[in-house]
From TrEMBL:
Protein's UniProt name: Sulfite oxidase
Renumbered residue ranges of the record's region Disordered: 541-562
Metal-binding found in the keyword field: yes
Any GO molecular function: heme binding
Domain annotation Oxidoreductase molybdopterin-binding: ranges: 180-361
Residue ranges annotated for the Moybdenum cofactor oxidoreductase dimerisation domain, each copy included: 387-508
Pfam families: Mo-co_dimer, Oxidored_molyb
Source species of the chain: Neoarthrinium moseri
Length: 562
């Protein structure tokens, strides 16, 4: 079968072994003969310069919307502007996403560059021209130098494992960032947002008005924000899914962070507008960044139900951990929705609209969907997916790391986090060193404070008697006694969201309470030879010839007699 026209390709065995899945042809077995269908390829980039010119002057079409709002183009009220942008984007092609799920993930930081997203911004031009470069500058200014930049633009980054739970409240510079577009740079003095749609008295508010304590009581809340993509890498490594680059940044366990936000309850602001009218049931939030989807431009829009707002669980926040919101986290004002996925906590808020149905904008209606396992590229409809709001209970081990060799005295030092959405909290954290057969409970004193809207960090010396490869598993029970599915396979879904399965890592256990192991480790020390990696042969004979002979002189020979 001519599946691959190869002649001694050096990477053939990798392809055969599933290590270069993207190169595999699709097998069509619907006919009498199996046919090999070539994967999609992309031709050279094209650009219809005349058609683009005919759209008009990009600097005028996509000019600065408001004084003091750098990088903001308002799309939602201007169908003509959207149409012009669509024509420009349709008149040229852009490079595809690099394949990083069925192929290797680049060993670089930034991991993925987001080249086509940068090119889309440059293609629109006008106010968006400088946005990719300005955004990266903001990243370098505001984020910790050790951040893992999963996607350079739009910026998606998380702290490395060793820093995820180093503090119960995440320092701002280490809080993960999930952006769908650039970072608008907004002057505080020029800032206002509007509240309109189905409210009695639509109006706009400046920051000073919002901060006026005589009108709006201040709320101070410590909140864990979690992206529904947290721990996606476990799904990618076993069962790749939707290959779109921005929703599918290869997040590890750090797309979760906890901060103290100061702001006000949105409910009070709606009240100040005379309340909802005409059957309004949802609040739609508009972010000032530009999002691209299907050759179309738009702002970042999502909604939450009024019931959530009514319960005072939706804040408008301007302060994060005692500082003004960093630009990258939504300066000057963002939404913080307690207990929902991060996607609903809109940054760079410029408008709130009261509406009857949940937002039909793509981020709400086409993304952040939890599909059943039988649904994928071959058959999916958006309505097959549950719109993700509250995150289920989950947890993760931050130390040790998978494939790590651990030398210990019968206990493996572990640490990590546990979280549950919807206002539930981790009530019990359990660890297993035998793949999830026996579980040890982390003593409550090893868990950080119990709070309604936050994670709990934990640490535990996990008993481990056995040696060799062991699977350490972590799971959490929340206060409603929800717990985590056992394996990533049970969590897998086409959108690669909500990896809430038990977190599993494999480490190589070297237990020094065993006399033979202690003796061998002493030999390594004496010989001044590093023990790792375990795959390298022992640098000295593991047994003397005398000892070997002594054994056989005292035991039965290898083969049994008749
Ligand atoms: N708001 C706007 N305007 N644009 C965005 O891309 N991303 C959302 C949300 N708010 C986003 C946004 C997503 S998906 C998440 S997980 C959170 O912001 C992340 O918040 P953080 O970047 O402050 O950690």
């Amino acid at each position: 079968m001519p599946f691959l026209q190869t002649t001694n390709r050096p990477d053939e065995w990798k392809i055969e072994q599933g290590l270069s899945g993207a190169a595999l042809p699709v097998l069509d077995m619907t006919g009498p003969e199996t046919k090999a269908l070539a994967p999609q390829t992309f031709g050279p980039l094209t650009k219809d310069v005349k058609a683009i010119k005919a759209v008009g002057d990009r600097n005028t079409l996509f000019t600065r919307e408001r004084k003091g709002w750098t990088g903001f183009v308002e799309w939602e009220n201007y169908p003509d502007k959207k149409e012009a942008a669509h024509k420009i984007l349709k008149s040229q092609t852009f490079p595809p996403n690099p394949e990083f799920q069925l192929g290797p993930i680049p060993a670089s930081n930034p991991v993925l560059p987001g080249t086509h997203w940068k090119m889309w911004h440059h293609a629109i031009g006008g106010e968006l021209t400088q946005v990719p470069e300005d955004s990266w500058e903001t990243v370098l200014k505001e984020k910790h130098p050790d951040m893992l930049h999963l996607l350079q633009f739009p910026y998606n980054g998380e702290p490395p494992k060793r820093l995820v739970t180093s503090k119960v409240v995440t320092p701002n510079s280490l809080h993960f960032v999930r952006n769908h577009g650039g970072i608008p740079i907004i002057n505080k003095e020029d800032y206002s947002f509007s509240l309109d749609g189905l409210v009695a008295n639509p109006r706009s508010f400046t920051l000073d008005e919002i901060m006026d304590e005589s009108r709006f009581p201040r709320v101070d809340k410590t909140v864990t924000m979690q992206c529904s993509g947290t721990r996606r890498i476990e799904q990618i490594l076993s069962y790749p899914g939707q290959g779109d680059e921005v929703p599918q940044a290869p997040w590890a366990e750090g797309a979760i962070g906890t901060a103290r936000y100061v702001g006000i309850s949105l409910k009070k602001v709606i009240k100040a507008c005379g309340g909802l009218v005409d059957g309004a049931k949802h609040l739609e939030f508009y972010g000032a960044d530009t999002y691209f989807k299907d050759d179309k431009t738009m702002n970042y829009l999502v909604s939450v139900p009024w019931s959530k707002v009514k319960a005072n669980e939706v804040l408008l926040a301007w302060e994060m951990n005692g500082e003004p919101l960093p630009r990258i986290h939504g300066f000057p004002l963002r939404v913080v929705v307690l207990g929902y996925i991060g996607a609903r906590s809109v940054k760079w808020l410029y408008r709130i609209k009261a509406i009857m149905e949940p937002s039909r904008a793509p981020v709400q209606s086409q993304e952040y969907l939890y599909f059943p396992q039988q649904v994928g590229k071959h058959n999916l409809k958006f309505t097959d997916g549950i719109q993700i709001q509250e995150m289920p209970v989950s947890s993760a081990i931050m130390s040790p790391w998978t494939k790590q060799v651990v030398i210990h005295n019968g206990k493996i030092r572990c640490k990590g986090w546990a979280y549950s959405g919807g206002g539930r909290w981790p009530e019990r954290v359990e660890l297993s060193s035998d793949g999830g057969f026996n579980w040890y409970t982390v003593p409550v004193e090893n868990l950080s404070e119990k709070r309604r809207w936050t994670w709990r960090t934990w640490h535990f010396d996990l008993p481990c008697d056995v040696e060799g490869w062991v699977e350490i598993v972590c799971r959490c029970w929340d206060n409603s006694l929800n717990t985590q599915p056992p394996d990533v396979r049970t969590a897998w879904n086409w959108g690669l969201h909500v990896t809430s399965s038990c977190h599993r890592i494999t480490v190589y256990s070297v237990n020094k309470t065993r006399p033979a192991t202690k003796a061998r480790m002493d030999e390594f020390e004496k010989a001044r030879v590093p023990f790792g990696p375990i795959t390298v042969p022992i640098a000295f004979p593991p047994q003397t010839p005398e000892d070997y002979e002594k054994f056989w002189s005292q035991h039965d020979p290898r083969d049994a007699e008749e």
